[in-house]
Every structure is written in structure tokens, then in C-alpha cells.
């Protein structure tokens, strides 16, 4: 087997696996830039995955996934921004609520097997010319349309945070919310907006898992991706392009199992499953003390 036969599928799997992580992490980036941390992102991903299942039967899978994420985001904004509840406790409670609610609804609507097993997934949409580039072409430019949306979203967020009034306002809130409010910036309104947008992207990440990858729904199928996305934000140093690259790193860690299987390695599959989580711990440890978080991040409101 040639190196190309191994590298090309590995790169394609890396991009495919990184797509939902990038969506969730870019959404969390918006939230953390306002000084909040949404541990409930895991719940938003799971709600989005279940929403995609329900919506797919009506031809609106991705829309329903976004709605699922928005529901979790609205609850987080209500308790944290409006009622001043603790961010970590609220996010944890919402994640547990999503796990229980989606599992219960799935069993009630579809039984232990269910219609989810027959969901069609989004087919790759090759970009003419670019998809024919050797090795990297199929990996980058023969992906489902949702992956191309990530290609546009990351630079758009980078430009928005650096060059627009709204982006600068978000950054100001995350650094000195009192000073931002004194300058006339609607702090609470922008925080609610960031939470809703971040959770919508988390829901879209869950929809991607169902509609572009697995073609099915399983209880707790988010499998810690929300927490990994939070680690990716730290690894990317709270910058959109850095976050996108961090998602690729974690995608590569998850895709290693495909490369090793193609090379005939007979290592236990559990080793590959645990790799992204070990990388999460390593990323957080290595970034500690070097990455500068928004000054107001996680502080009580």
C-alpha cells in the first residue's frame, strides 16, 4: 500500500471529523469573548443531534438542529444573564438535562431501534478543479456542503471580531464589562446574542454528526465533543483561525484509527477512542499560563 493510499483517506477523515468540532468551538469562541463560559455546549450539541433526527423526516434537519441548540442556549441565557446564576453549575445542569430529555424522547418516539437507522447522510459535493488536486484535493474540496460553511465561517468571524463595531464590542465586554457598559455598549443584550449564536452553532454541530456523518442518532452521541470544543478554544488562543486549526488537530487525533487500520496495525480500538481526550488534557496543560483568556472569562456577573 502506497503512502498516498494512506494519507489521502486520513486527511479526508481529519477534515470530516473536525467539522462538527470547529462549528461548536467557533460558537463557544463567541460566548467566551463576552466573558462567559458555556459548559452547556455539550447539551446544545446533543439537542441539535436529536433535533436533526426529528427535522430530517420533514426535510428540515439542519434547521431543526439549530433550533435544538437555540433552546439550550436560551435556557442558559435566561439563568446566567438574566437571573445571574452560576455559569458552571447552569451549564452542567443543562447538559444533564439534554442527556436525559433526548434519551427519553428518542425512546418514546422511536423505540430502542427507530427510524434514525435509515437517515440518509449529505453526499460529498466536489468542487470542480480543486477536488482533483492530488492528495489534498479530495480531503479539502470533496466534502459535504456543511464543511465548506466552516471554511467561510472561520475567516468571517476573524474579520468581524477585528474590524466591525459589534466584534470590537464583544471583545470589550469580555475584557472589562463595566467599562463597556459605561461606554454605552448593551452588555447583557450582546451576551444573550453571543450565547444564542454559540448554541445555534453547537446545535448545527450536532446536526452535522447525524446528517453528514453517522446517519443515525444514539443516546449521548455527542460523546464529550462539547468539552473538547471548549479545549479547542483554549488551544486556539481565543482566535477564530487558531480555533479552526485546533479543530483540525483534534480531528487528526480521531482519524488516526483509520490510518492505522489502513496500515494493518492491530492496536486495541480503545486506544484510538481515548486519544482525543488525552489530547484535550495535554492541550489544556500546555496552554496554561501562556494563552491569555478574556479578562472577565468565567467571573460572576
Mind explaining what this structure looks like?
With 301 residues, this protein is an all-alpha fold. 71% of the residues lie in helices and 1% in strands. It contains twelve helices and two strands; from the N terminus they run ααααβαβααααααα. The chain has helices at residues 3-32, 41-56, 61-82, 87-110, 136-141, 145-163, 165-175, 177-182, 187-214, 225-235, 240-262, 269-287; strands at residues 125-126, 142-143. A two-stranded antiparallel ribbon has the order 1-2. It starts with a helix and ends in a 14-residue tail after the last helix.
Strand content: under 5%
What does the overall shape look like?
globular
Largest sheet: 2 strands, antiparallel
Query: Residue share in helices?
Result: over 70%
Mean pLDDT: 88
The total of beta strands comes to 2
Radius of gyration over all CA atoms, rounded: 19 Å
Number of helices: 12
Terminal CA distance reads 58 Å
Order of helices and strands: HHHHEHEHHHHHHH
Which regions contain 5 or more consecutive residues with pLDDT less than 50? none
Order of strands in the sheet with most strands = 1-2
Which structural class do you get from the secondary structure elements?
mainly alpha
Note the topology.
Blueprint: H1 3-32, H2 41-56, H3 61-82, H4 87-110, E1 125-126, H5 136-141, E2 142-143, H6 145-163, H7 165-175, H8 177-182, H9 187-214, H10 225-235, H11 240-262, H12 269-287
Antiparallel strand pairs: 1-2
Helix pairs in contact: 1-6, 1-9, 1-10, 1-11, 2-3, 2-4, 2-9, 2-10, 3-4, 3-9, 6-7, 6-11, 10-11, 10-12, 11-12
Amino acid at each position: 500500500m502506497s503512502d498516498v493510499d494512506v494519507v489521502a483517506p486520513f486527511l479526508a477523515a481529519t477534515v470530516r471529523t473536525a467539522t462538527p468540532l470547529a462549528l461548536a468551538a467557533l460558537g463557544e469562541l463567541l460566548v467566551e469573548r463576552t466573558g462567559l463560559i458555556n459548559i452547556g455546549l455539550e447539551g446544545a450539541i446533543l439537542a441539535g443531534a436529536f433535533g436533526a433526527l426529528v427535522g430530517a423526516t420533514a426535510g428540515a434537519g439542519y434547521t431543526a438542529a439549530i433550533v435544538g441548540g437555540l433552546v439550550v442556549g436560551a435556557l442558559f441565557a435566561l439563568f446566567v444573564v438574566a437571573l445571574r446564576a452560576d455559569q458552571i453549575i447552569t451549564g452542567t445542569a443543562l447538559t444533564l438535562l439534554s442527556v436525559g430529555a433526548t434519551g427519553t424522547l428518542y425512546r418514546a418516539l422511536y423505540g430502542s431501534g427507530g427510524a434514525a437507522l435509515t437517515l440518509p447522510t449529505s453526499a460529498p459535493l466536489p468542487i470542480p478543479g480543486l477536488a482533483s488536486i492530488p492528495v489534498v484535493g479530495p480531503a479539502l474540496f470533496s466534502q459535504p456542503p456543511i464543511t465548506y460553511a466552516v471554511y467561510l465561517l472561520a475567516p468571517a468571524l476573524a474579520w468581524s471580531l477585528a474590524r466591525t463595531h459589534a466584534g470590537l464590542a464583544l471583545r470589550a465586554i469580555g475584557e472589562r464589562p463595566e467599562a463597556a457598559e459605561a461606554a454605552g455598549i448593551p452588555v447583557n443584550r450582546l451576551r444573550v446574542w453571543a450565547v444564542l449564536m454559540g448554541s445555534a452553532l453547537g446545535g448545527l454541530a450536532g446536526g452535522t454528526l447525524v446528517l453528514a456523518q453517522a446517519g443515525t442518532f444514539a443516546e449521548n452521541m455527542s460523546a464529550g465533543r462539547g468539552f473538547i470544543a471548549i479545549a479547542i478554544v483554549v488551544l486556539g488562543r481565543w482566535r477564530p483561525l487558531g480555533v479552526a486549526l485546533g479543530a483540525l488537530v483534534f480531528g487528526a487525533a480521531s482519524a488516526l484509527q483509520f490510518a492505522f487500520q489502513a496500515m494493518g496495525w492491530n492496536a486495541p480500538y480503545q486506544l484510538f477512542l481515548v486519544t482525543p481526550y488525552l489530547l484535550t488534557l495535554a492541550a489544556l496543560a500546555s496552554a496554561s499560563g501562556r494563552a491569555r483568556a478574556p479578562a472577565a472569562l468565567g467571573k460572576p456577573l
